[in-house]
Write a structure and sequence with these properties.
Helix content is 38%, strand content 35%. The longest helix has 15 residues. Strand 1 and strand 2 form a beta hairpin. The chain is globular and about 35 Å long. The chain is an alpha/beta fold. It has a five-stranded mixed beta sheet with strand order 1-2-3-4-5. This is Anti-sigma factor antagonist. Belongs to the anti-sigma-factor antagonist family. Pfam families: STAS (PF01740). InterPro entries: Anti-sigma_ant, STAS_dom, STAS_dom_sf.
Length: 117
Amino acid sequence: MDLSLSTRNVSGPGGDRTVVEVGGEIDVYTAPKLREQLVELVNDGSYHLVVDMEGVDFLDSTGLGVLVGGLKRVRAHEGSLRLVCNQERILKIFRITGLTKVFPIHTSVDEAVAATD
């Protein structure tokens, strides 16, 4: 399966956010496409990202590495990277790896955009 990516800008109480909507599988084959998108956004000055993973069917360790790398990039600019996910099979991966302590995970894009912490 392929990876689909789209971005849009949204304003909320916490300021402007760039939402990256991801669909399909984030694995060793498709993760570089997501990495390129995150690097490009940060290079263009988007430091507050919301990664909407509602359409993600599969996530492997390579995909997790890309998300952690994205988080490091935005934090270097005092930014943030929030995840949107309420699929139990994907959330379980974040819990098992301890990344629920690293990433703010929200149940909707609206909730992630509204978050000010």
